[in-house]
Amino acid sequence: MGAPKAAVPFVSLLAASFVLAASVLAQPGPPAESGSFRAPDLVELISLDPTIRLDVRYATPDNFVKRAVYAEARAFLQRPAAEALARVHRELGKKGYGIVVFDGYRPWSVTKVFWDLTPESDKDFVADPKTGSRHNRGCAVDVSLFELSTGKVVEMPSAYDEPTARSYPTFEGGEKAARERRDVLRKAMEKESFFVLPWEWWHFDYKDWASYPIQNVAFSEIPRVDASRVAYLPQTLDLASARIVDLTYAFDERTIYWPNAKTSFVKQRDFYGKTEGGWFYSSNTICTPEHGGTHFDAPIHFSEGKESTADVPVGQLIGAAVVIDVTAQAAKDRDYRLTADDVKAWEARNGRIPKGAIVLLRTGWGSRYPDRKSYLGDDTPGKTTDLHFPSFGKEAAILLIRERRAGVIGVDTASIDHGPSADFVVHQIAGAASVAGLENVARLEELPETGAFVVALPMKIAGGSGGPLRVVALIPR
Ligand SMILES: [Zn+2]
Ligand SMILES: [Zn+2]
Prior knowledge:
By secondary structure, the protein is of the alpha/beta class.
C-alpha cells in the first residue's frame, strides 16, 4: 500500500478480472521521468539477512484486492534502503523483535493493476500510475514486528492495510501495548532514516526515494538468491573493537587423532640456525592425517561425489555462529546426543536459527583436551569401539541441516557423531547436504549463544576429505 488516506475500496472479483483484461490494452507503460537518477540496485532483503521475515501479502489473496498480484513472494529495496532495514532488524533484536516485511519494491505494472481494480469513486485512495508510487522506486517498505521468542507477528493497533483511523501512526485508541509496539517500530525505522506515512503505521519511505526512478522490472527478472548459501554476514563488523577468539588447538605431538589413524602429527626439522650467508633460517616438513586436532570434514568425507575440502565455497565457512550448550547434559551422560528439543529450546530463547548459520555445539569437553583417555573415553591405540563423548544426535542433525539449512556444524569433541556411534549418521546427513563439519573446536566456552561471527578456513587440499583448520570467532563488543 502507499496512497490510501482513509478507506480502501471494495472490489469484486468479477469486476477485477474485467478491468484487468481491459487494462492490458489501455496500458501505455510507466511515466517518462526527466532528471538524473541513481542507478537502480534492487537487493533481495533476505540476501542481507535471512532472519528478516517475509509475509508478502500481494503474493497471496490475503490483501485488499483479494487476489495474488505478485507471482513470487519476494521483497526488494534499493541497496542503501535494504541495508538500513537490515540494521533496523538487528537493532530490534536487542528488544526481542524482528522485522516482518509485507511489501517492498513493487513493479509499476502492479500499481497500474491496483488503479484499474479501483472504482472511480475511490481512486483518491490508490497511487496514480501516471505518477507512480514510492514502492515503484524501491524505496518504500511495509513492515511490522514479530516476536523472536515465539516467532509470532505482534498485534498492532490495526491490521495491515486496514482502511480505518486505527491505521494512523498517531491513533491514540485501542490497547496501550499495541500502540507501544507500533511506536517501537517507528522509532527504530526513523533512526535509520525511514519516514512513516501519516495514515499507515506500516508504510515507511526511505529518505532517498526521490533519487531513484520508477521501475517496472518483474520479480522474475531479478536473479534469485539461494538463501541457504548466504553467509549471515553482519553489515558492520568493527574489527578494531571486536574480541577475537582463536578456536584452534595448536598442532604438536599431543594432537588427538582418531585411535586408528595410521600416523599422527609429524614435524621434521629441515634446517634451523645460521646459514653460510650469515642470516638465520628455519624450515620444517610436516605430515598429518586429515582428521585430527582442530580440523575440517568436507562433505565427501561420508558422501561420495560431494565437495572435497578445496571445493567447499569459502562463503559457506564464514558466517554467524549459533552456539548450543549441552554442558549440563553431557556432565551427566558422556554419550549425550543433542536432541531436536534442545535445538527448539535454544530457538525459544534466541529465535529461529538462520539459514547458512555455523552451528557450534558446546559440551564442555574442551577442558579435557588433550588428555586422550578423558577426552575420547578410551586411549587404547587402534581401538575405536569403546569411545565415549557427546555430540550431535540424528534428529537434531536433520532439523539443523535439512530444515534450518545450517551451512556448517561443529563441536568441541572429536566427532560430529557421539563416541559410541557405529554408523556415523550425522556425518552422513551433513555430507549428503553439502554441509561441512568442524571437530575438536577449542574454547567454545568463550562464545555467546548468538552474536559471534566465525571464520573457519581449512587448508585447501585438492580432493581432500578434510584437513587441518584454523578457526576464529569475532565477537562484537
Ligand atoms: Zn574429521
Ligand atoms: Zn568427522
